[in-house]
Structure formats: structure tokens, C-alpha cells
Design brief:
4 helices; 171 residues; transmembrane; mainly alpha; DctQ; TRAP transporter small permease protein
């Protein structure tokens, strides 16, 4: 196996795993919220851990799902101006937008790292999980998005249109 095909296979496995994690977080969140609603309104019992678990699963789903949305170019964009620009200028504007996104994401990573340090000893009120894991997910997601935007920016600077990879769930 050549190094290029090994890297390609490893990346395919990584993206498949990340997609599985996001879908699993969503499904688990639905199950936990169903437990919360059924126990509260049918049985009259409040299950305290369900609120925190569903919140953490939702955060993981949002941050890691944002990485997938960026990879497949599914984030909302307003392109009314860039659609009217000549291709060369449109690529430069897109590269500038990528660079701004990278700067913002690096700032988010710095904030997430700071919060990981601050909350390392702070645990959830209903189970033993450090709050720092929430910020770790945010840090990892921002790092992955920086990597994706860096690659996308290089393509824009070379004058190539960034075409998203095929979605695994599409026809």
C-alpha cells in the first residue's frame, strides 16, 4: 500500500468515525431526553442526570457536526457579492474569508484551552465528569476546522474551486 493510499484510507476511516460519533451523540441525546420526559410526566419522577447528559451530548453534536458541515460545505453562506465577481477576485475574497475564519477559530481554541485549564477540577453536579471535556470537544472541533480551512484557503489561492467530497448519506 502506498503512503498516499494509506493516508487516504486513514482519512476515510476518520471521517466515517466522526460522522458515527455525531450521529450517535444525536441518537443518545434523543434517548436521554425521552427518558427525561417519560420519567417526569408519566412517572412523576425527575431523573437529575438526564438534563446534564443531554446538554453535553448536544454540545458534542454541535461542535463536531460543525466540522462535518465545513467539510461538506454545508454552512450557510451569503454569496450575492462573490457570485458577481470575476473568478480570480472571487477566489481571493474566498481565501480572505478562510483566513478570517482561521483567525476566529484560533481565538476560540485559545479560549477553549483556557477554560479546560480553569475547569479541570470542576465536575458535573449529577455525575463525575469534568467540565474540561466540554471545552476539549470545542478545542478539537476548532482545530479540525482550522485544518480544513487551511486546505480550502490554499485551493482558493491556487485559483481552484473548493468542491466538497461526496456525502456518505447522499445518493
Amino acid at each position: 500500500m502506498s503512503p498516499r493510499s494509506f493516508v487516504s484510507s486513514a482519512l476515510a476511516i476518520f471521517w466515517s468515525l466522526l460522522t458515527t460519533v455525531v450521529v450517535t451523540a444525536f441518537c443518545l441525546m434523543l434517548v436521554v431526553m425521552a427518558i427525561q420526559v417519560i420519567s417526569r410526566y408519566t412517572l412523576g419522577l425527575a431523573v437529575p442526570w438526564t438534563d446534564e447528559v443531554s446538554r453535553y451530548l448536544f454540545l458534542a453534536e454541535i461542535f463536531l457536526g460543525s466540522v462535518l458541515a465545513l467539510r461538506y460545505q454545508e454552512h450557510i453562506r451569503v454569496t450575492i457579492v462573490t457570485d458577481r465577481l470575476p473568478p480570480k477576485i472571487a477566489h481571493l475574497v474566498a481565501a480572505l474569508a478562510d483566513l478570517i475564519g482561521i483567525v476566529v477559530l484560533i481565538m476560540i481554541m485559545g479560549g477553549a484551552w483556557n477554560m479546560m485549564e480553569r475547569t479541570a477540577g470542576v465536575f458535573a453536579s449529577t455525575f463525575q465528569m469534568s467540565f474540561s471535556y466540554v471545552y476539549l470537544v470545542q478545542f478539537i472541533a476548532a482545530l479540525l476546522m482550522v485544518i480544513l480551512l487551511t486546505s480550502q484557503c490554499q485551493r482558493h489561492l491556487r485559483g481552484k474551486t473548493a468542491t466538497p467530497p461526496a456525502k456518505p448519506w447522499s445518493d
